[in-house]
Amino acid sequence: MPVRPVLTIAAMGLALIALTACGNTIRGIGRDMGNAVDATQDAGRSVANSVN
User: Fold this and answer.
1) pLDDT tens by residue, 1-17
2) Which sign, positive or negative, has the C-alpha torsion 27, 31, 37, 40?
3) Which long-range contacts (CB under 8 A, 24 or more apart) does 25-34 make?
4) Rounded to an integer, what distance in angstroms lies between the CA atom of residue 22 and that of residue 14?
5) Main-chain phi, psi angles of 11, to 5 degrees
6) Rounded distance between C-alpha atoms, residue 47 and residue 40, angstroms
7) In this structure, what are the phi and psi dihedrals at residue 41, rounded to the nearest 5 degrees?
8) What is the 3-state secondary structure (H, E, C) of 1-52?
9) Which of 12, 15, 23, 42 is spaced 20 to 30 A from 5 at the CA atom?
């Protein structure tokens, strides 16, 4: 079997794995940002309730 097709398939496989990992990382960052926003809003409500 020629080397070039094997290398091409290997490179495509590595690219697929890398893109999958990036997708999971981006999804995780989105969840973390959502949690940070929720925590900030909860803290703001706590401060507002303690003033009243």
Assistant:
1) 688 999 999 999 999 98
2) negative
3) none
4) 12
5) -65, -40
6) 11
7) -65, -40
8) CCHHHHHHHHHHHHHHHHHHHHHHHHHHHHHHHHHHHHHHHHHHHHHHHHHC
9) 23
Question: Which residue type, as a one-letter code, is found at position 36?
Answer: A
pTM of the entire predicted model: 0.55
Amino acid identity of residue 33, one-letter, is M
CA 35 vs. chain centroid, Å, equals: 13
- In whole angstroms, give the CA distance from residue 43 to residue 50: 11
